[in-house]
Write a structure and sequence with these properties.
mainly alpha, 0% strand, 222 residues
């Protein structure tokens, strides 16, 4: 056997099929429940305001929740997902945490954002509509990323997409029924998020029961 043949034979012996790399080992607990509960609670409150529950029309009470629960807590959950190797969770929690912080900033009078439009309410509504539509685009892209994860996340992001579209349309057209429809879909979104959060919280071996997420089976490509 020639030297070249020996070298090729040795290379073939050491070749191994490429497999997806495993997530790095970490002692950080699963932050999924924290992020999902924070998102669900803040979304639930604002959505109730959007449907004028109990006659509430001014949503500013949600500012505290948006800053610290939907914002800070969710942002931290996203940061903890990074060392766990969960790119999807890190991107979702960090981004939606930033969304709630930015939304709260708009509602805070001291930010001067709303005041910058003066009496031109139509221009403000158009700007807010673009803001909401941008988050629809982001949510739709996240929906694509969730298509091979589980049915619970797919449902969550699907209803969140509809929520953003309706809220943007209601803001652009100043039609209250459309905005209320967005609030109704937001309530459904929050309930699905609560379900996902509880499923993450009920750890196998530490809980009496668990909740299925509808995991989509993925075939290995060796």
């Amino acid at each position: 056997m020639s030297d070249i043949e020996k070298a090729n034979s040795t290379d073939q012996m050491h070749e191994k099929p490429m497999r997806p790399s495993a997530r790095p080992a970490t002692r950080i607990a699963n932050p999924g429940a924290l992020g999902l509960f924070s998102f669900a609670s803040t979304t639930f409150i604002l959505s109730l305001y959007n449907v004028n529950a109990r006659g509430i029309a001014v949503p500013n009470v949600v500012v505290g929740m948006a800053c610290f629960c939907g914002g800070l807590a969710q942002l931290l959950a996203g940061m903890w997902e990074f060392p766990r190797g969960n790119v999807f969770g890190a991107t979702a929690f960090t981004s939606y945490g930033a969304f709630w912080m930015s939304y709260a900033t708009i509602l805070i009078p001291g930010s001067g954002i709303v005041a910058a439009y003066g009496d031109n309410k139509d221009e403000l509504n158009q700007a807010l509509g673009i803001y909401l539509m941008t988050w629809f685009v982001f949510t739709f892209l996240m929906l694509i990323g969730a298509l091979r994860r589980n049915f619970s996340f797919i449902a969550l992001l699907f209803f969140l997409c509809i929520t953003f579209i309706l809220l943007a349309a209601g803001t652009w057209t100043s039609k209250v029924p459309v905005a209320k429809a967005g609030g109704a879909f937001g309530i459904v979104t929050a309930l699905i998020a609560y379900y996902c959060a509880l499923s993450e919280l009920l750890v196998k071996g530490e809980s009496w029961f668990g909740l299925p997420m509808g995991t989509i089976k993925q075939e290995r490509a060796d």
